Amino acid sequence: MIRFALFICGFLVLYYAAPMNCQAGELKTRYALVTYENQDLLREFNDNLRIGYKLYQYVKRRANYTLTDEVKNKIDVVLEKVEVVLDMFPRNVSFNIVLLPDDEDIRKIHQNVYHRNASYIAFFSPKKNTVYLSVDDINLRVLAHEFGHVIVENYFDISPPPKMHELLAQFAAANITD
């Protein structure tokens, strides 16, 4: 009985001493594996990504029981909308998304990947097949732009020149409707 009581006390101490909302996580959408530092960052991403009434109707049609469900559905709906805007429907789209707190973190990652400075709020790395997003700066057009890069990269057998890549991503951002 004493051992059981000690076990319960130990468990309660560990449970309540553990920092809340500090665990890193990942979630799998239909197309992407999203990684994030903590639950608060995921919540901020969801709050900052306002997709508008029309697109939200598609999100609502899917099961939205939790924060992660809503984030997964938003990502998938926006990606599918970008496919429609670009009229490109690549098979088996699969990529990674890394949520970062702000543009300074984006700058550091870009420096690490490409060994040059840039002041982006988001970027897609084809060689890592990863979209890096600043949660502070996320909005529908930024997400559509980066997803435009993903779609273009996955649609063509040979990646188009960088200027064409950028033009198509800009077109996706400019023509996404919320």
Description:
- The protein is of the alpha/beta class.
- It has helices spanning about 1-15, 40-50, 50-60, 65-85, 105-115, 140-155, 160-175, and strands spanning about 25-30, 30-35, 95-100, 120-125, 130-135.
- The chain has a five-stranded mixed sheet, with helices on both faces.
- A hairpin with a 3-residue loop joins strand 1 and strand 2 (about 30-35).
- The protein starts with a helix and ends with a helix.
In a few lines, what is going on in this structure?
The protein is of the alpha/beta class and 178 residues long.
List keywords for this structure.
single chain, 178 residues, alpha/beta, 5-stranded mixed beta sheet, 5 strands, globular
Question: What topology emerges from the helices and strands here?
Answer:
Blueprint: H1 2-17, E1 25-28, E2 32-36, H2 39-48, H3 52-61, H4 67-86, E3 95-100, H5 103-114, E4 122-125, E5 130-134, H6 140-155, H7 162-175
Parallel strand pairs: 2-3, 3-5
Antiparallel strand pairs: 1-2, 4-5
